[in-house]
Amino acid sequence: MYPDDDDDRIPLGPPADDRDLGPDERDRDLMDGTWEQQYYSGQLRTRDWNTIALGIAILVVLALVLPMLLVVFR
Predict the structure, then answer these.
(1) Helices (H) and strands (E) in the chain, counts
(2) Which residues are within 8 A (CB) of 31 and not within 5 positions of it... i.e. 6 or more apart?
(3) Where is this region: Disordered (predicted)?
(4) Does residue 30 contact residue 23 with C-beta atoms inside 8 Å?
(5) How far is CA 44 from CA 29, 31, 69, in A?
């Protein structure tokens, strides 16, 4: 609206004189698709949170049931 508004602007990104040189060696697996081969081949190990939650739930149930069984069969 006013010509002086550009002087009060706060830049949010890097200065305009910084050049983007493009992808580097860290991005090479994204460019050639090797990350997809590793991800879909099953060789990439990930944590299965559903199995961990099931194991914790079984431990909780055993912690509740085992004392009752020990009292009954005493």
Answers:
(1) 3, 0
(2) 23
(3) 1-29
(4) yes
(5) 14, 19, 42
